[in-house]
Amino acid sequence: MSDRVGLVERSLSTPTREEFDGRVDEQATFLRAAIDSGELDTEDFAVGLELEVYAVDDDGRLARIPASVFEACNKELGLHNAELNTDPDPFTTAGIEAQAAALRSQWERATAAAGDAARELVLDSMWTVPPTDGSHPYLSAMDDREGVTVPRNMRPAPRYWAIDRDVARHAGGELSFDVPGATVEFPSILFESLATSIQPHLQIPSTESFPAYYNAAVRTLGPVLALATNSPFLPGDLYDEGTDPRALLADTHHELRIAAFEQSVNYTDPPKCRVPEDIETTADVVSSVVADPPVAPFLSEWVDDGDGEEFVDNFWEYDHKRGTYWRWLRAVIGGDPVDGAGDGRSIRIEYRPLPTQPSVRDIVGFQCLVCGLVVGLVAADHPLAELDWAAAERSFYAAVEDGIDADLAWVTADGDRTSDSETIFAEVFEYARRGLRERGVEPATVDRYLAPIEARWDAGTTPSAWKIAQVRDALDDGATLADALARMQAEYRRRSRDCETFADWL
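Below the sequence we write its predicted structure tokens.
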């Protein structure tokens, strides 16, 4: 039996589950002590970023990424996916520009490597042009590996396989994906790889004040996502037979990525992927991970990840479980050294609901928006935290469905509850700019990265709204839904390559 298959079977065994749970409990005690002692305090704020992309062939169809490309980027869940990461930098002018330069450099190397392999990497949130063999066959293809059934087009990593088999077991063998115009069954979680995302990270220097930043961030999820929506369509061959394209344009959600992720994994009680609850103390983030239903537990001695970081080694199993704590916002303990901002022992917010954006500058713009907004709200002692959690959750899912036109919820600087979008986005941009000023970020840098996002609000449109309009125009010209999606996607790819920001499309 191969090592990979053996690890999957060991992961799903009862003895492993019992040993894993015991270690997580012990490691949680270690982490609570580290939090209480201030061991996770750092010198300053820091920022980082993750970016997911997918690949297409010369015809614009989804395609696997050849191994040679991964010398310039990292592997992800699907064989068509890749990930780029920035090392953390101080949250300053120089740090933001370093983030942008690092991301741009990685992107240029990755796209060049992909081009050499007859592939194109796409800065987009959901692929809509199917692979040659069709979307459902591609996402449903399964292989028998020595008695363990695994998705053929999933990255052959034991952790991915074990998560997939564990979730499929909870789901009874079939996973349902139900969105406007499409109800589809899949045998694995691979349909999650329909979508890609960006994840800004914000290191909080004071452990004691961490809950203020975390709870404020929860209440920003709806408005920030409303500005970012970018996945209103599935591949055309996944829609139900007889779907009315015109009705679909009216009914589709602006951010189908949220449904793709939630419906691929939410088969436990309580569901694992959702808006996180508020926290009262920093240690609550540890307790939340401990209480979360485990999926595909691994033990540290099975994996030689080459980390060698003694502090993280003290909570390896906890950190593995945190990797399947799929909330739209979560805390990450550990970190990397950041010159001038910490020695590597830190706690940070990972902001997870944002779709991949059309350009590197747009992506860094949302990093600045998120991090500046959270810092600005707390620095100003803004009363947004008084917004009840249920209203923040409803606001988030309203943005998922309706994008920039969503019915959002907010509490103003004067303490008034409002759903007026003009008021909400005025404060979103005001406090994002304030947070960047608090960090001493130069006005030119603030404008460079926030102005294109502000332009979306001024124009009343986002990438998802642009896509819907493009498909509508193609339908008006007599195209079928599948052809309209392909036409939209080709134009999206062209503009993404040729324009510095989405605002240049408007």
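The chain has one domain: 3-358.
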